[in-house]
Write the structure tokens for this entry.
Amino acid sequence: MIFNYFSKVKDKLEEINWIILKQTISFDPVLDDMGIIEGILIFRDSSILEFMELVGEKDIEYRFHYMDKDKNLIYRWDTSPHHKKVHSFPYHLHTKRGVEDSKKMNFIDILDIVADKVIDNLGL
């Protein structure tokens, strides 16, 4: 299961490679059914995505921190259990306006969202 997911993430990264300037990523299986993906992507518009995703058969924990070239927050999706009043707890999204509900995300979802934003920023 985990190796299949790792493979799908690698395929997505290859698909959007043309907008990535630099990437540092590690794919670490912890057990047969659990693994960690973490690293940093720097995009052609100079935006940055720092991420950590712990993927398991039942649960998922993550932190996807997307910021501009000056490291100002654009979005951060995470599962930290400190926003219990959010309806989608523990899944939530940080924006410049504050904390909002968010559906359960994964790295592929995030790469799609960020790629669209980068392409828009580049005017392509």
